[in-house]
Design brief:
Length: 326
Amino acid sequence: MNQAGRALAHAFGTGALTPQRAFFLRAELGPFRDVDAEQSFRPEFLRLKQAGWRVVPRLERGTYAQGLLLLTKHKEENFANIARAWSLLEPDGTLVCAGANDDGAASVERQVGKALGLAGSLSKFHCRAFWSNRSKREPPDYWRQLAELQPVGDGSWLSQPGVFSWDHVDDGSALLASHLPDDLSGRVADFGCGWGYLARQVLARSPAVSGIDLIDAEHRAIEAARANVIDSRARFDWLDLAREAAPAMYDAIVCNPPFHAGRAAEPELGQSLIAAAARALKPGGRFYMVANRGLPYEGPLKMNLASVQTLTDNGKFRVTVSIRQH
């Protein structure tokens, strides 16, 4: 359990809170086993599942006496999660939040206090834990709007906080899209699909594509991608490709590696996706990837694939195409 989780546990250890029927959003392994847990990030979800927790990617409904929430470093995601958590509480139910000081937990605490009121708080392990009792006060409309899919970009896309580059087209994805060919055919995949931008570009440019699998480790991304890629050729898979096998073999794969891991830069995830792509490509299959040019991906590309070619390099991002040998 991270430091914020330890602070959350400490709130119970002080006797300030009483364990009751509870939910746990952004759940991580810890002492709170008898809860209804929500974890949308596939690696954490699998860890909880393997440990015997009751866990789902999204809690849709329920009425609980108590809710637990681990905050992230992303302000809008926290507001969305607080709004959703508030809606799951019964009247007078208690919502307990915890987050790291370095991630802005104190700022979130102040805003929650202003909007909903605070029943208590503590500081421990370089984190803040604070709690509110549900009254007739409701989260601001903006927070509640963030908890659902909403238009982004030019208005033709839907997304939500918790997804990489959730409110705009990522510059790297746009660069890769501008260098995709129009002759892709057969079965294609988008590894780390996000909210579906690249997959929709592939389908628009290459009519000979017979099917495309949109795969991401973040369930919220899959929810958004389903709303954005309305095409009978599209299939959606919530998978951790670093640990789980791709569902098919492909003629081509496109990828903007989500090196942010939802929380911090971890280029190892991109390296894992490169290896996963090499395993999932048919002989002669093509792998199109964009990545921050400072990340160590050239070695893994050459190790796993052949004919690594740079299509463009704008000083910030590099787009490459690699081919799996026969």
